[in-house]
Every structure is written in structure tokens, then in C-alpha cells.
Amino acid sequence: MRKRYVEAPGRTDEASGLRFFRKSEAVDLFFVGYGLLIVVLVAVSYAAGVFRLLPHDPEAVNLDLMLAPPGTAGHLLGTDFMGRDLLARLILGIQAYFLPGLLAIAVATVPGLALGVLAGYGAGRADRVITWFSNLVDSFPRLVLILLVIAAFKPDIYFIMVVVGLTNVPATVSLVKVKIRFLREKNFIEAAEGLGLPRRTIVLKHILWHHCRASLIIRATLGMGEAILMETSLSYLGFGVQEPTPSWGNMVQSGANYFLQGNFWPSTVPALAILLAILGFHLLGDGLNNLLERKAVY
Amino acid sequence: MSLKGVKPVARVLAREVAVTALLLLGVSVVVFCILYLAPGDPFSLLLEGQMSAGAPGQDVREAMGAPNAWHARYLSWLAGMLRGNFGASIRTGLPVLEEISRVGLNTLLLTLGSMAVTLLVAVPIALYAAVRGVNRVSFPLTMAAYVVSSLPVFWFGYVVIYLFLHTFGLFPLAFGGSQGTNRLYLLLPIVVLGLGNGTLSEVIRHLREEMGRVLSEDYVRTARAKGASVWKHAFKEGFLIPVTEIVASKIPFILGGAVIVEQVFNWPGMGRMAWQAAQDRDFPVIMGIAVLAAVFVRAGNLLQRFVYIAVNPGASRETIGRRVA
Amino acid sequence: MSVSPLLKIENLKTYFYSKGRQAFIRSVDGVSFEIRRGETLGVVGESGSGKSVMALSVMGLVGAAPGVIAGRIGLKTDGVQKNLLQDLDDYVERVEADDRVVEVRKDVVGWQKNVERLMAMVRGKTVAMIFQNPKSSLNPFLSVGRQITEAIRLHTPCKGKAESRERSLYWLERVRMDSPRLRYDNYPRALSGGMCQRAMVAMALSCEPSFLIADEPTTGLDATIQSRIADLLAELKADLGVTTMLISHDIGIIRRLSDSVAVMYGGMVVEYGPAGKVMAAGPESGHPYTAALLASVPDERNIRGKEPLQAIPGDVPDTIHVPDGCRFFGRCVRVTAAVEKECAGRLPPLSEITPGHAVRCWLYGES
């Protein structure tokens, strides 16, 4: 298979002002759009209760129409084993993970940034201690740790998400630390200090805002993906949101028994929603990163 | 290998073991804190369980002067654990360690098997992509792996069971059956966890990046120029180290996935036991499982460090802990 | 006695493609020369002149696409002439406009496989190469001695462990490595740059190749070590008489070791001939670029007299937007009104001014 290389003279090489829309940029914008669509659905979810946007009451039982497949009249995505509309439950189910997910991201990011800066910027001792703590936190499988916490505290989803966030702190720390090490090697930090910039400015503005923000955005979207997976896994196992409140996880679980009989939709619809949501956030992160990184000089 | 390298290497190995021991100590502290701070004083239950499950002799002494201060309780609990006394299950009353060992092997099988599956799928894709770059073959495969990694494993398991049921007519009945078809069924959770543990795309990406980087290193170019086998030269830095790194760092994820997969397949393992324990608030069991899981994670990590040190001639110097994000 | 040359390169073109600019980077744009047995050809040029890429093209080590797209590399192996770029035209299609290649269609994967097949017999055994940055060019995970032994066992009849080890040690001594037995077990990180380069030379020569390519062997080493390595290469040249292509931008080492010299500029050879003639280029003789290059290296008199350095005015040539005419036009100080139009408009061919000495310049050639 021959690859074709064509010289196209007359094209400007440097980016200046308006740049012609390149194919890969379109792809990134698509990813960002996809991710934003998810966010819009989130908004709909929260607004739904207030503005009565849902097609049906998510808790309305309709025994005449159990396990209806998608496309049935009035039920775009079908119904579950109790005749409840899947689409409505799906939309409402977003609430089970979104705000808790944000909490997890916040808990992962803020201490992570602080510790990362300490480890990267400070003395070698701080670095070693923080690394040890990071390794310590990483020693636990997240789900097993959560189960332990559940056994001990019988907590609500927000508490659990705080724990999830804490288990993600090492990742943020590592991210910031690596960036600082990179900047140190390139002598940026030395130069900034030499110019007399106050440490706070160097850290907040130069290191964190300019250099880390792209990676942090990706980390945040990955974190949301993890939060979704964690919340749905826990609800699947029976530890999260309880019936009749919908969560995508418990929807899969309740549909599981009927799956093997051939009624796959009650389980598959929420599972696909999980897949598309996690992918959506990942792609959002990737797209944002690529768009932001284009502006980077090196 | 020259003999001169032995002493400094032994020192580095000892240091790694010491760090691991220290980390495990930290693990015990974390677990202790969680249980100690929990409402309803589960810790006392735990200690009592330890005493009843332990040998009669020394516990008489302990029963007489039950420690009250938190540090004393911690030490007593730790001492019990180190002796292998993890207390007794609240639900069954049996010693925890025994219970766990009964099922631990199943989870071990599941975990190791699924790691093998992940590698079996990831390695060819990663190596192909490293050599050929992004093309009509590697791109869809990588994308497919990305999608598969985002699949919720608890749904994926049902899909696989359903497919299996309808193609082979196998029923997920009791284990231990010696029939050929039942044996085949054992593979299912391993395959499901291997594909669905969410790490597939990262393993591919890490291996492809590292191997790609190594293949363009100067020393590999020299190997090519002298007519030597490129793979032999690229192997250590481009394959062995990245694979052990990524596998070791993903063990926690695989263990977490095992909890779910054991639920889906009704696989009698530590994961399902953990779920049961969380439901029943059976602290000793869940604590034991958490600690053992952490031990397993650290053991994997230690092994990876050993490989790294064995391969790296510079290892007699300070080796900073490498972290795979 | 008509002896066909050991290496004969004809019209070699190696291009790279920049996706961002949708243009070719014409690294090697029609290079031809030959090297006779026993001769050392020095290839001189500044960074970006294409000399390293040319060497990599000979070895089939060009990785990026499209890579080698035209040419013939004749190598004499075992008395038989072989084209290292055999069947290239089966894999490449070139589309030209105004004597310039504007489109290339190449089966990159197929060609790479073909190259590997062709080069497998030759690499290490007939042609050996040593590189710049010796420290990073050695496998950091293997001891230096084992890497030499590996080459020996691959390409010489010496296959036994003890045998090949002895041979490695012999060669380590030959390259004047101190404490060869100790250094044999050392890893590259324990050796200095100079020692690593000696080890690379040992590794290359231990298989007794007919042809050695040395790509900037002293660049990147300390100044004092540079002269030591140059000494070593001179000594080995006298002892072994290996045919060598020595690439460097260091005029001193070129002057010292070369029998013939090829001067490269902007991807092309601009002057080629016996070392004595080429290195004597001055304000009235030789290619203007060669003369300027030689003049830019200060000698003792310039330094003592604190005379200003003679830089070459202008910028490094652009290998993407290649001009129609002579590539040195614009920086050339010897342009006369008579040839100016030619220099700007047409690329001068490489023409002989005396037998064996060719220059690519309108000042000499027929218009």
C-alpha cells in the first residue's frame, strides 16, 4: 500500500490569526461537543424535577407494560421489570453520581495540588514523605477500601466520594510533581526566581495555571469517569442508592435477572449510558487537552 | 554478571523490602484508624474476636488487662495479626484467616488469569502499534480497546454469560465439577475480568509509548547498524520494564474488578466474601480482606522493583520510586 | 588496473515530509560520489547539510517517511557489486515538475522489508558504522564487552564464548582502552565519552568490515579527548587501511584523516576531490562555500593577531523552500555580474575543473 506525499505550495506554514480548520481540530471539537452534551444532560437531570421535563414519573409503576423494549409507544427506551420508564429513570439517575463526582474531583485536586507543589518545590525530605504516603494510599484497591469504609461507617454517597477523592490524590500529586521536575530541568523555575518573582506567583500562576492546567483538566475528566464507575459499581452491588430511586448501577442490577431470559434492554440501556458517559468525559478531556496544548510553545 | 555487584545490590534490595514493610505498617495504621473511628466501637469486637480465636495461653493475660489506650489496642491488634490471628468472623464465628484462605486461592486464580488475558490482548496490539505507528489496523484496535475499557464490567459479564449459555448451553452451576464443559466455564470470569477491568487501553498505551520510544533510541539504532536483533536489545527497556510496571500498578484495579466479577458469576472468592462482609458489617472479615489485598498489591510492587533492579545496572544507586499514573 | 570503487553513490535523494507544512524536507537532494578501496573520504558540511542523513541512507537506517526515494548505492561485497537500493523503483513513484520532485508515492512498509533483506547480509559484516554520542549509542543494560562480543559472534567465524571474549579483549587493547579486562565488564554509564567511543570503534572493527562509516565520531566529546580519538583513528587507518567515510563538521579532523574530501551544502555535494586540492580552497580557488568554510576556522596567526572571526554571512539554507538556482547564492561573496543570472536561476552541475576534482559552481562550469 503506497502512501502519498504531496507538496502543496502556497500554504502558509506558521499559525497567525485565523487558521484554517484542520481535520484533527474538527475531531477534537467533536469530542468536546460530545462531552458537553453529557453536561447538558446533567443539567436537564437536575432541572427535570423542577420543570417537569421528564416524559414519565420515574417511579410510576405500570404493571401492564413490563420489560417493554425500546421504541414502544410512549417509552423511548423501554421500561424495566416494573413497567417504569427507562428514559426517565436514566435521566434522574445522573443525579446519583454527578454532584458526588464533583466532590470527588474537588477532594482529589485541592490536596493533590498542595502536596504536589510541596513535594516538587520543597526539600527532598518532603518529597520522600509524600511519595511514601502516595504509595500507601495506592496500596488499597479502591473498591475494597470503600467496602471497609461501608462496613465501618455505613456512609452516604458523599462520604464515599470523599474517600474516592482521597484515593485519587496520589495521581494529582504525581502529575504536579512531574511537571515541576520538568520545569526545574528546563530552568524555568530558577529563571523565575532569579527575576525576583514571589514564590506564590511562581507556584500559582506559572506552575499551576499555565503548565498544569491541561493535565489537571484531563485528570478531572478521568476522575469523573472513575466516580461514575465507582458509584454505579456500588449501586450495582447494592451499597449505593437504594430502590426505588434510580441509579444506573442498580438499574443494571435489577435488569440482570431478566437479561439471561432474553430481556436485555433493562440492563443494557443503563450500561450503555454508563459507557457513553464515561467515554464522553474521557473524550472531553482529550479534546480539551489537544485544543489547549496547540497553544503551547514546546 | 560480575560478583562485584552483589553487595550494593543486596543493599538496595534490602531497602526495598524495608520500604514495603514500612508501607504495610502504614496500611495497618490506616485500617486501624478506619475501624477505630467507626461508630459503635467495632474495634472492641475485633479485639475480642482476636482473643477468642487466638491461643488460650497468652490471651488469658490479655483478658485480665484489656488494653484501653488507643496505641496499646493498636499494638495488641497488630501483634495478633502478625501471628496470623485476624480475629473471628462475626457472622460465622470462624477464624477470619481460615475463611479467607479457603476462598483466597480462587481469587488468586481469577486475578492472575485475568492479568494474563489482559496482556495476551494488549501486548500484540501495543507492539504492532509501536512498530507500525497509527495505521488502518492499529487505530481501530486501539479505539476498540478504549471502548472496551470503558464498559461497565458488571454488564459485560452478563453479556458473556448470555452468549455462552446460548452457544454452549452451559449453566453457571456449582464449581468443582470435573466435567470438561464446566472447566471451560471457569475461563469466563477470567476472560471477562481480563477484558473488562478497565485497564486494557492504558496497558496498551503505556507499552506502545515505551516500546516506541525505545525503538527510536540511539542504542537500538546501533544494534540495527551492527546487524543485531533489535528486539533483543529493546526488550529490557521497551518490554520487560513497562509491562511489569503497568501490571504492578494495575493490581488494585484488578482486585476491585474481581469483587464485581465474583458477584456476577457467583465465584466463591475473596471479593464475594468482602461484599458479604460489607453487607453484614462483618468487620474482621472485611478488615482481613483489605489487609490481604494491600499485601498482595505491595507484593506485586516489590516483585516489579526486583525486576527493575535486576535489569538495571545503575541500581546500586538511589532508585526513586517510579510511579505509573 | 581498473579498480571499481568500493562504494559508489549515484544521485541519492532522501526526503522527509512535514505534515504541518505539507512540504518536503529535501535532506539529501541528489548526492553522488565514490570511494575507492583503502581510501578515507571526509564529508564536510554544516548542520543540516544532509551528511548524517546520507550516511544513514547508506545503512538503510532512515526511519521517517518517505525516506530514500531515489538513487543507487553500489557496494562491492566479496568482489561483487551490489546495489543497496535495488528494486527501489518498485516501491517508489516520483512525480516531478520543473526538475523538482513534487509528489512521492511510496510503499513504506514494503520498502523497509526489502531494505532489511538487502542489508541483513551487509550490516556489521561488510559495513560498520560508529555514531556521534557514543554514550547513548551503547546499550545501557549490557556490559560494553558483551556488546562487542555480540558483534563478533554474529559476523565472524569466532562463535565460542571464550574465543569471542578473547577477541573482544584483543580489540579493546587495540583501541587503547585502559584496563581492557576491567572495562569489559563495565556498563556504558561507568565509562567516559571517549572510552565509549573507543569501545564503539572496537565493536565496529572487530568484525573486520570492508567499509566503515564514522558519523561525527569526535563531536560531543571533550576537546582533549577529540584529538585522542583522532589519533586513534589515524593509527587504525595506518594499521588496517579500512575504507572509511568520515563525516564531520570539524575541519581539523577532516584535514588530518582524509584522502579525499566531499563538501556538502544544502543537501548536495558542492565540491569533491583529493584532500590536498579541496582543503586548499581559497579566495580564488575551489567552491566559494569551501573557501568560506576554511576561512572561518581561525589559525594561530588569526588568534594571535586578534583578528575578527570570518563568519559566513546569511542564514543556514532552507531545505524546504529550495531555491531554483545555486543554493549558496545569497551568501556567496564571489558572485560576478557575468554569472549572477545563472547563479540565481539555474542549479549548477558538478563539473570537473581538474581530473578528479569537481566543483558545483557557475564560476567554473559551462553555462
Count of DSSP-assigned helices of chain A: 10
CATH class of chain C: Alpha Beta
State the CATH superfamily name of chain C: P-loop containing nucleotide triphosphate hydrolases
| Number of continuous helical runs of chain C | 14
**Unreliable segments of 5+ consecutive residues of chain C:** none
| Low-confidence sequence ranges of chain A | 13-21
Beta-strand portion of chain C reads 25-35%
- The class by helix and strand makeup of chain C works out as alpha/beta
* Spatial shape of chain A: globular
Q: Give the chain pair forming the largest contact, with residue counts.
A: A-B, 49 and 60 residues
Task: Provide the succession of SSEs of chain C.
Answer: EEEHEEHEEHEHHHHHEHEHEEHHHHEE
Q: What percent of residues of chain C adopt helix (DSSP H or I)?
A: 25-40%
Specify the biggest β-sheet of chain C: 8 strands, mixed
Written description of the protein model:
The complex is a heterotrimer of chains A (298), B (325) and C (367). Chain A has 10 helices and 1 strand. Chain A has 298 residues and is an all-alpha fold. Chain B starts with 5 loop residues before the first helix and ends in a 14-residue tail after the last helix. Chain C is α/β, with parallel strands linked by helices. Chain C has one domain: Rossmann fold (3-Layer(aba) Sandwich), CATH 3.40.50.300. Chain C has an 8-stranded mixed β-sheet, sandwiched between helices. The chains are: A mainly alpha (298), B mainly alpha (325), C alpha/beta (367). The interface between A and B is large, with 49 and 60 residues. Strand 1 (3-6) of chain A pairs antiparallel with strand 7 (100-106) of chain C.
